[in-house]
Each structure stands twice: as C-alpha cells, then as structure tokens.
Amino acid sequence: MKKLSVNTEKPIGKKSLDQYLRQFKGSPYYYGNASHAFYDVMVWLQENRPMKKPNIVMPVYIPAKLYRFILAAGYEPKFYDVSTDLNIDLKEISDLIDDQTQAVFAIHYFGVPVDLKPLKNITECAGVYLIEDCAHTMNSYYKGRQLGSTGNCTLFSTRKMLQLHCGGAMVLNIKSWDFKPSRNKRVWTPFTMYHFAGSRIKYKVNKLLKAYSPFKQSTMRYNGYINYSEQHFVRVKNMDFFFMWYNKVSDLDKMVDKRRKNFLHLLNGINDLDSFFPMGLERYAKREKKGQYLLKKGFVPFSMPILTPTGTRDQIQKAISDAGVLCYVGWPEAPFGLDGFKGASMLKDRLLELPIHQFMDSYHLNIIIDCLNSLPDTVKRSEKQRLVSA
Ligand SMILES: Cc1ncc(COP(=O)(O)O)c(C=O)c1O
C-alpha cells in the first residue's frame, strides 16, 4: 500500500475505507455507528483515568443521540455555543475546561473544516483529550492537514458519507491503556443487506423517475423532535460481515469527486440568491473573477448548510421536499432547552441542509436551484446584511 503523509496538499488517493483509516497514526475500529464508538471511548477514559465528576466540553449544537450517550457514559456535558460560520471560539472552549474535564469535542460540521491545531495546543497544555468529529467528512484536508489527524480520537460516520444503512468508525491515538470495543451485539448480515438493497433500489427508481415521487417516498416529517419521556437504551453494536467486506471495496475517491462536483453545481446555481447564505463559505470556496465559485482542494462535504431568512426554513424545506428532494434541517432538538446559546438557537430555527451526496444527479440539484429561485419575494428578500451582522 502506498504510504502518504497526513500533512499533505496532494489528494489522498486511497481507494477503500480500510486503506484510508489505516493511514492515520492510531488504531482503527469499526462500529455500527459513530455514537457507539464515542460512548466506548468515554467509558474507557473514565475507567482508566477516573475523575470524581467527569465532564466533556461539547458544542451545544449536536444531535440528541450524542447528548444521550454523554449522559449514559456518566459525564456532564459542558456546552459551548456554535456560531453561524460553524467555527470554534478558542477562548470560550478553554474557559470551560476544568480539573474534571476528560475531553474536548470538536466537529467539522457538514464537512466545513475547522483548523483544530490551536485547539490541540490548548487541550495538550490542559492535559485533556481532543475528540475530533469527522462524521460529516472523509478523505479531506484543510490547511495542508488531513481532517481526522489532529484529535486523540477521531469519529467517522461511514453510514452517512457512504450512504449506508449502518456503519461508523473510530481512530484512536491514545496509547496509554489497552482499548477493546465493547461488543454485545453483532448485526445480522441479512438484516443489513435487506436495508442496503432497499436504499439502493430507492435511489435507482428516483433517478429513473427524475425525482418524480408520486407516492411521496421522499417526503419526511417536518418536525423530527425527540420524545425525551421515552426510555432510551444504549446498545453497542458491531459491524456485520457484509459491511466489513464493503469497507474494503467501496471507492472513496469516487464518492469524494461526486460530492464535490454536486456541491459546486449547487453553489454556483444559488450564488445570485443573497438571501441564502452558505455557511463557513470562505473556508472552502473562493470566487473567481467571473463570479463563479471554485472549491478549495481537500474539501469533502456531507451536505450544504445554508442559513435561511428568519421564519422561512420549514416552508423552504417543504417546497423542496414536495418537488421530490429530501433536505434535512440539522438538529432542531438542540440546544436542549438551554438558554444563552444565541448561535445554536439560530441554527436550530434557520439551518437547512441541501443534499449533495453521491446519489444525487444534476436534475436533483436543479430541482433545489429552481425551487429556491421560484420562492416568493417575501422569502427571497435580501437580508444578507442582517445575516452577516447576526
Ligand atoms: C456531527 C455528528 N457527529 C456524530 C454523529 C453520530 O453518528 P452516527 O449516526 O453514526 O452515530 C452524528 C449523527 O447524526 C452527527 O451528526
């Protein structure tokens, strides 16, 4: 296998997920999803370096499932806010670290990269671990550094980036104690194969019908809030044999190319609409003289997060969904009823994720572009100034 430095400006050029994970310093582990890996690491850290009241410094804009796993592992989350450029505030994070902090958690949201080197310096000085969340990216780099190579532990959600029914991975670069994933349940291969085949057939049909969806297969519930009154159990699952095989044959380069191509198509298609604000744009794109965008090298997105004008997000999501393309809205359950998180409260209400994954084609993307262009003026009115100053 070709050896590549993690500090490279060149494309990674790795073919399979297996090869990709093995190039990191540290040991790769496969899981049923990223959250289970996260849970295992938190429990393992606390077993080996017990704290009286362990805490983890977390962004407050996260899916409720991560929040539940923190609590299930016996930690207190100490939350920091997330701004609309999806970057981190080093001071805010370092002020939260105390003598009971086991780890700091940082996310490359939707693939928008964060320079984690300065944060790593802070965590190293404080003697706490850095957990890097690459759930929304893979095979990417920023400022010459591969995303995933800075954290002491890095999480990948392979099910998201490879569009699979299940699958997550972790690279652990903490060698102080032996780590063994807790595996109390193995997923049954015929179960996952069935879901895998179902999702692939859905994509084929959708492509064949050019996103025409008479049975509203692509329609989703617009408000996916979690019911906290239900009891939630934590089960740690491992990959099944089918996905272990799939990890070896999946082509990451192809996935990267298609995601970048789709992202650029969409970005240039909505570039005249100044009411929709692609978040963190300057970190992954630059504008050419002709007004078109170019993506920076190494950027590998999960979706395109845009900030919609106040009070219009759900209407826009519904319009695109009715036209046959499914968009997600981040995590409307965050910031979990907590006050004082201005950024996350805004994201909760206004963030819309435009899909650009590898099974989208140009006609899907054009549906989104046409939809955004044909929204009523009340929605499209320019509020760039307001967004910038927010
Ligand atoms: C930013 C982020 N990190 C981690 C996870 C957990 O990934 P998984 O669903 O594979 O457990 C998610 C899932 O939504 C996520 O969005």
Compose a concise summary of this entry.
The protein has 390 residues and is an alpha/beta fold.
Could you please describe the fold and organization of this structure?
This protein has helices at residues 17-22, 34-48, 64-72, 90-96, 117-126, 158-161, 189-208, 241-249, 252-269, 313-322, 342-350, 362-373, 377-380, 384-389; strands at 27-31, 55-59, 76-80, 101-107, 129-133, 141-142, 145-146, 153-156, 168-172, 185-186, 237-238, 277-278, 285-287, 293-295, 303-307, 351-355. The protein is built from 14 helices and 16 strands. The chain is α/β, with parallel strands linked by helices. The chain folds into 2 domains: 17-185, Type I PLP-dependent aspartate aminotransferase-like (Major domain) (Aspartate Aminotransferase, domain 2, 3-Layer(aba) Sandwich), CATH 3.40.640; 200-221 and 251-389, Aspartate Aminotransferase, domain 1 (Alpha-Beta Complex). Helices cover 36% and strands 16% of the residues. The model is unreliable at 1-14 and 385-390 (pLDDT under 50). The strands form 5 sheets. The protein has a 7-stranded mixed sheet, sandwiched between helices. A 3-stranded antiparallel sheet has the order 12-15-16. Pyridoxal-5'-phosphate is lined by residues 33-35, 63, 66, 107, 133, 135-136, 155, 157, 159, 168.
